[in-house]
Amino acid sequence: MYLNRIYKNFHLTISIISALLLFFIVTLKAGNTSTIFSVLQDLVAITLLFSLSVQIKEYIRINKISFLSLTFAVAVLLGILLMSIWTAQMFMDNLVQKLNAELSVFSFASNVVGIIYFCIFAFGLTFIFVVLKEFYYSKRIKYNPIYFQLLIAFGILSALSFTIFQEINQAVSTAFMVVTILLIVKNSFGISWIAFLNKKEKYKLLLISLAITVLASVLVGYSADISLHSETLKSYSTGFNRIALLILIYSLVYFGVLFFTVLFHLPTAEAFDRKAEEVSSLHLFSTLINQVIDFDELADTITDLTRKVSTADASWIVMKNGNTYETISLKNISEKDITEINNYLLYSGECKNLTKAKICSIEKSSVKSKLSEHLSSVIISPLKTQTEVKGYLLAARKSGLLFYDDEAKAINAFSEYASIALENSRLLKESIEKERLEKELDVAREMQRKLLPANDPKFNELQISSIFIPAFEVGGDFFDYYTDKENEFSFIIGDVAGKGISAAFVMAEIKGIFESLSKILASPKEILVKANRILSRTLHRKNFVSALYGKINFITSEFEFARAGHCPALLIRDGEIIKYQPKGLALGLDYTESFSENLDDLKIKLRMNDTLIFYTDGITESKNQNNEDFGDNRFVETIKRNLDKNIEQIAREIISEVSIFANNSTQYDDITLLILRWNKN
Amino acid sequence: MAEFNTTLKEQGDISIIKLKGYLDAHTAPVLENKFNELINNNKYKIVVDFRDLAYISSAGLGVFMAYIEKVRENQGDIKLASMSDKVYNIFDLLGFPLLYEIFKTEEEAIKKFSE
């Protein structure tokens, strides 16, 4: 359990152990100045620094601390270190002597204070070093870690040689130190990460790096001097003093260079910000194109981004709608101003045949005085598909400055993306709508199919043949058979005004009404009158239904029917075609008594081989490519030519004649054809 | 797609709507708007001129049914005029002549209003 925890905090454990070791070595050493002790101290100190650096690095990586915050932390740490030196100076004099004195209660106490002092510096400087290392490795274009590794190696060599040869010769250590400083200078150039900061952040960085440079140079002064401060540190590790100095020099050089780099970057910071905004907007855009389904939302985003990219004060999108332009999205501008500018730019012919973004000044134009805001410069960019200009993307600026060319270029690139995105979104919307309509029609067609009888009934006395061809949009034709009564066959054929799902609903209602009425009532006229009355409750005023109800009695050979505004009935007898069109209003046109008064019942005594034909206007109103109707004449002629055939053949001939006539024209209405042949004397 | 449009002419308190082209389920809303406009302006004496109408479907006929009650409640009427035989046959088949007065010419229809 403890082992596990130690393993987890391996580096923390190492740090604590090294700190304790240093404490004991100093306590035991008691003023001994043997080199072996000093080297041992240095090694322990380096271990401490190493373990601390690993932990600090982990901490920075895990918390993803921004570079600006890191520089701020460096400044604060340097401040704390300086404060520590000043505070310690009050008792440092005593402290150093006691540290190196023989073992006693006082030296022990001094040692406790001393190790804390040492640890503060160890931590502070390690932190600064880790930050410098992070900076070195970040956003480097040419990645070459060898110089940094060399820097560390020479730093350590310089520290160790300083300890080993401190009594004999300082030249070796100084040589190493010079090399290290050269490496520091080399590594401090080529700072690229500041380029990714915005203007405000750059100002902050400028101040912080100035503060760091000042603090670091003061601290370097304390370290280089044979001061009490450095004496204290040396008591724990001679080499650490050297390392501390190098780290301070590094931060002094690095932040000094940083200060000047930021200073030189400042004038271009704004331009850089804009470019960065442009790049990120375009990137955002390319992902938007494939994501946004909502047209209005997309238009809004485009308008907003345009304003940001061009640092404009206002932006808007207009789309062509016939001969006029419609504003589909706007930002920071009133409808009135848009209308004025549109009138000036779009309708005046100023921007005819525009193929790319154009900068227009309205500073001296007549339109300027009509605007409620003081807009002075406008960029107009066409939103075009491959074939035509669909609309325009506009941005306007208030200040007296004209837009720059590079801003026009940015907007141009932008509008190219925008037109693709908007077109995609529009096509998607269209296809969704189309799909929805098709689904609806599918439902309507399915309903109609289920409402119609599945097969034609068979009788000895009567042959029945029917053909139904639905139109794409569901035309509202219906027919049904009633065979419940003995020795009797009844049927209805009709046409609901209207199309699609609404017609299908009326059809379903009609089917129910006639099915029940056919069981209760006997006379076709009565049935139609009653159906009209029932429909008055539900049928919309502009809807109506044409219908023909017929009944054949197998015993009396009598055919009785009534026609409510439907196509006439045709009787073929002895090679002649007789048309029956008794009076009758369509259902739903008139709910008063006059409906019944104007509806005639007709009775015909059938003879052997009498053929009855019922149909809907889908046949006679079938159109050819010249928009001519198939018409009554062609219909009757077709029947005449096929009189001697059986009724299935007659039905097929009629339909084939209609389709030859229509040739590839769209069938706008349902086609229903019902043929009966009487087989009894 | 077949075209349809209307033109409106005023003669005294009588409004004359001239139909042109193909009146079907798709173009019916054009005529509906026209009727709405007249009714909103309290114009209830309406003559519809069919001279240039090439075709009318059942949905087109429905438009007349939708407004006739409202118009008659306000002592007005919709009178139909100058139908081609083909268009008349469609009206006739459904029994419209029982519900509407249909005249040979626009003038006759206007005259009827002033009687």
Describe this structure in words.
The complex is a heterodimer of chains A (681) and B (115). In chain A, helix 1 (2-8) packs across helix 2. The model of chain A has no long low-confidence stretch (mean pLDDT 85). With 681 residues, chain A is an alpha+beta fold. Chain A starts with a helix and ends with a strand. Helices cover 58% and strands 15% of the residues of chain A. Chain A is elongated. The relative contact order of chain A is 0.06. In chain B, strands 1-2-3-4-5 form a five-stranded mixed beta sheet, with helices on both faces. The relative contact order of chain B is 0.17. By secondary structure, chain B is an alpha/beta fold. Helix content of chain B is 42%, strand content 32%. Chain B has helices at residues 28-40, 58-73, 85-94, 106-114; strands at 4-11, 14-23, 45-56, 77-81, 102-103. At the A-B interface, loops of A face helix 2 and helix 3 of B.
